[in-house]
Design a protein that fits this description.
This protein is mainly alpha-helical. 65% of the residues lie in helices and 5% in strands. The protein contains three helices and two strands; from the N terminus they run H-H-E-E-H.
Length: 120
């Protein structure tokens, strides 16, 4: 599988996890490498928070407002209608988190050096 194929499969897997998380269904990210798992879990939670509008007794789609749905109905709606959008949201979240980590490392390095050159 090519690099892009691996990324596409990862986005698809994380989009499925986000949908399941949003609806309170079981999912697992245990098959992911531990270094990626925390970033993936944060991205899944962030995207999941935007997928469902809970109106008490009824569920509505957080992306288009359609509903009311049963839990199963909303799951199918999100998978069939919004899977590409959810995969894109996951990609953006993961990219943002990776960029933030890289930027944080640069700040830590700068703080560690104190920004001051030492005379020898």
């Amino acid at each position: 599988m090519t690099g892009e194929g691996v990324l596409s499969a990862l986005r698809s897997r994380l989009a499925e996890a986000a949908i399941r998380h949003a609806l309170g269904l079981d999912y697992s990210l245990d098959e992911l490498p531990s270094g990626v798992r925390r970033i993936a879990a944060d991205a899944v939670r962030s995207v999941a928070a935007r997928l469902v509008e809970d109106g008490g007794a009824s569920l509505r789609c957080g992306l288009c407002g359609r509903g009311p749905f049963t839990r199963r109905g909303l799951y199918l709606h999100l998978k069939r209608v919004h899977s590409a959008a959810i995969e894109a949201m996951i990609g953006e979240e993961v990219s943002h988190r990776l960029w933030s980590l890289r930027y944080a490392d640069v700040l830590v390095e700068a703080a560690g050096s104190g920004g001051v050159e030492h005379a020898h």
